[in-house]
Every structure is written in C-alpha cells, then in structure tokens.
Amino acid sequence: MHTAARLGLFAAGAAAVFTAAFVAAPLVIPADASAAWTSNEDDHMTTAEPGHGDEHTGAAASADDVRGLAVSHAGYTLTGLRAPASPGEQGELAFGITDAAGAPLTDYETSHERDLHLIVVRTDGAHFRHVHPVIDDRGEWSLPFAFDAAGTYRVFADFVPAGHGETVTLTTTVDVAGGFAPEPRTSDATAATVDGITVEVEGELVAGAERELVFTVTRDGEPVTTLEPYLGAYGHLVALRQGDLAYLHVHPMGEPGDGVAEAGPEISFMATAPTAGRYLLYLDVQLDGVVHSIPLVLTAGAGSTDAAGGAAHDGTHDDDHDDGHDDDHGEAGR
Ligand SMILES: [Cu+2]
What we know:
Elements: H1 3-13, H2 34-38, H3 58-65, E1 66-67, E2 72-73, E3 76-82, E4 91-98, E5 108-109, E6 116-122, E7 129-131, E8 134-135, E9 140-145, E10 151-161, E11 168-176, E12 191-194, E13 197-202, E14 210-219, E15 222-223, E16 236-241, E17 247-248, E18 250-252, E19 266-272, E20 277-287, E21 290-300
Antiparallel strand pairs: 1-17, 2-3, 3-4, 4-9, 5-10, 6-7, 6-10, 8-9, 10-11, 12-13, 13-14, 14-15, 14-19, 16-20, 18-19, 20-21
C-alpha cells in the first residue's frame, strides 16, 4: 500500500538518522491540541527545505499517513453498528461495510493475515481492544463482545477492499452508558507492564518523518525470546494521535522466517507521526498462545517544515529538540 508515498516519506526522513537514544520531545501540547496541529504561534519564518517538494504541504503529507477519522472514505462506509449498551452486558458488536453503490462489501483482501481488523478504544485511550470479527454471507461482521467500562468508544475497521489495493480505515463512535471515570494520558509512558509482561520502547516520533521504534519485551526481568508470530509478525502496533485518535501508518520491520526478525526481546516498527503531539501506542504480542496488549505513550517532536502544516518551530535543524520549550515530560527520558 502507498509504496511510492512510503518511499518518499522514508527518503525525507532519511536525512535525520535514527538514533537509539530516546529523545524527550519538549513541546508542550495541550490536551486540546487540535488548534496546535493546524496553526503555530511561533514567529519563526516557515523555511522550505531544499529537496522537499514545496507543494508538499502539511495537509498533503498528513493525508498519506492519517486514517481513521471518517465513517466514510473512498466510497466505503461503516454502517449499522450494534453494540452492548452498558458495561458488563454480554452481547455482540456488529456492523457492515458498504461500497460506493450502497451494497454490502463482501470481498476483502487479506492483510496481516485477516480480512478485517477491528480496534475498539475508549476516547481517553483506555480499554483498548484489537479483535477480529467474522463476516456472514450478507456482509455483516460480528463477534461476541462486552464492554468493561462506561464511556464513549471509537471503533476502527481496518481492511483492504478486494480490487481497491489500499487499506481503508473507517471509524465510528459508540456510547456505553454508566458512570464514566476518565483515565487521560497526561504524560509519556515509555515502559509498561501488563500480565507480567514488560515492554519498553526506544526511539522517537518526529512529525512528518518515518522513525524506527524498538520495543524490548521482558518477563520477570528476563528478555523474552519466545514471541510467537501474530498477524504475520512478532508483534502488531497500533498508534493513535491523542485528541482525534487519528490512526497512524505503522509497519513491522521483518517477519517471522525472514532470517532477520527475531522472536524477541526486540521488535521494531517504522512509524510516521503526521504532526507533533502525543501518541497512544498499543503493542500486541503473543506469548504461550495468548495475545497481550501493552499501552505506551510517546510525544512526537516537531519535525521537518513540510509536516505539521508548515509549522516548523525552527527552520535551521530537524534534530535538535532542546530548543527552550518547557519540558513537562520529565519521565520520558527514562
Ligand atoms: Cu487485527
């Protein structure tokens, strides 16, 4: 998918070489960052970098890498979502995808070993689920489902329509009744432990540039080297932009059996953050037949001038994040 675009972005990002050391991104991004994503109060001149297409605006750059903001895209529409209405209610999550003619879409291309990937996450980033519904002969996708907490959830359907050749990510919301206790992600989290499995991430996210993120998996302090293939890789990474939960372009480096990718303790992904700001990462790994989702949080620094709507904070360099912005992410430096 988007091979040309991806290569182009990779070339743009190649100017700044990936460094293993985690660099704390010092930008202060307010919780309501939507304004900051489209404008910038800095009085620096926007400086176009040689070699970057001048017409390649932030909007164009973002369009390649931001998905999952619309219920309808490229003629495909997510319709008829049904879900349990309250926490603890055992029910079914079901929906359909229609094509441009309004007919149910029944032909899909397998991607990452499935015809459709479904992500369900509460809007504060909590209660992430990555599941795989099954389709019936009328084109309705469904799976048994129960919410474990109240709140508003975003549902993402990620799929490749047969003959379309590109991934489509559609989204809708579902409200689950009851008392809602928000769990906002107010700081970066470069390490987390779930089910006794600890994951630590190294690498940085930079607006408009592809970067490698390396995740190290340990259990009881010991490196895990027995990760099992899951969805065609040794891990699956979902990255969402805090604020609008835009769905990022992420792809694993290598696959089981390629002679390069190893079954841990390190697994790598290439990720492109469309804009500066905080991102919610969810790494799925499979161990002993069980899939575990580990949530992490990273802040992307402002990158090249053709990202973030041309809102470069300093046109003279891409790699220096220590430019005097207050740093409220002290824990990010590990
Ligand atoms: Cu999936």
